[in-house]
């Protein structure tokens, strides 16, 4: 992925405003016709609440575009299939357990309003816990747990799932990093065609284009 981020604008002793633009390419090994490109705009207001805790409110716009043509499903490369505006409130905390071992906790309440497809407006509650160990300065490994509850506001659908996974993050430079995640997801949905159970593996390369 590529990121163009603003330098944080200081609004007070412990309050900052920031913005960014992200671009990502998402590819599937066994379902390549569903590969897609992601474009996301973010604006966040950050507030340091204590030495170990911060809060954030923000807005983001996410747009997803098909990366390949599909005759079977009748879409073309470049077709947009999601345009979503989200507003979130989050709280995060870091508790050092030793000089290299950290316990990170994160809660987010999010309202997502989607223009396409229809009836995808959601209210989302999510909680994450991560045990991160810094092997050396640029390398971090972790054990992570996430739980997510999504309620769709315009139709009778509710999604509930968990994820347990290991992670590895390596900072290549001040502007680039690589990360990998591998684990299992479990959950269910009131919509019978949705299945959250399975294994997953993600690999990401991130490069920050610059700050403005």
Give the SSE layout.
Elements: E1 2-5, E2 9-10, E3 15-26, E4 36-48, E5 53-66, E6 80-96, E7 101-116, E8 122-136, E9 139-152, E10 158-171, E11 176-189, E12 198-211
Parallel strand pairs: 1-12
Antiparallel strand pairs: 1-3, 2-3, 3-4, 4-5, 5-6, 6-7, 7-8, 8-9, 9-10, 10-11, 11-12
Taking all Cα atoms into account, the compactness measure Rg is 18 Å
Indicate the proportion of strand residues.
Answer: over 45%
Q: Count the strands?
A: 12
Question: What do the pLDDT scores average to?
Answer: 91
- Tally of helical segments: 0
Largest sheet: 11 strands, mixed, barrel
Could you say which overall geometry the principal axes of the C-alpha atoms support? Answer: globular
Q: Nutshell version of this structure?
A:
The protein is mainly β and 212 residues long. It contains no helices and twelve strands.
What does the model show?
The chain has no helices and 12 strands. It has 212 residues and is mainly beta. It has a single domain, classed as Autotransporter beta-domain (Lipocalin, Beta Barrel), CATH 2.40.128. A hairpin with a 4-residue loop joins strand 2 and strand 3 (15-26). The chain is globular. The two termini are 18 Å apart.
Attribute tags:
212 residues; mainly beta; Lipocalin; eleven-stranded mixed β-barrel; 0% helix
């Amino acid at each position: 992925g590529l990121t163009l981020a603003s330098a944080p604008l200081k609004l007070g002793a412990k309050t900052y405003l920031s913005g960014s633009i992200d671009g990502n390419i998402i590819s599937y090994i066994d379902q390549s016709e569903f590969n897609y490109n992601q474009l996301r705009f973010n604006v966040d207001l950050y507030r340091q609440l204590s030495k170990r805790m911060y809060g954030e409110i923000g807005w983001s716009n996410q747009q997803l575009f098909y990366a390949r043509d599909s005759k079977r499903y009748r879409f073309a490369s470049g077709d947009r299939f999601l345009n979503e505006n989200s507003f979130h409130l989050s709280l995060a905390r870091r508790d050092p357990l030793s000089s290299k071992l950290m316990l990170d906790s994160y809660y987010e309440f999010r309202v997502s309003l989607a223009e396409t497809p229809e009836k995808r407006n959601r209210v989302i509650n999510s909680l994450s816990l991560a045990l991160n160990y810094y092997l050396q300065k640029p390398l971090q490994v972790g054990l992570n747990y996430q739980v997510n509850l999504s309620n769709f506001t315009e139709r009778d659908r509710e999604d509930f799932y968990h994820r347990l996974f290991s992670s590895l993050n390596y900072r290549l430079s001040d502007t680039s990093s690589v990360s990998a995640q591998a684990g299992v997801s479990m959950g269910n949905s009131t919509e019978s065609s949705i299945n959250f159970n399975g294994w997953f593996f993600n690999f990401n390369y991130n490069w920050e284009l610059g700050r403005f």
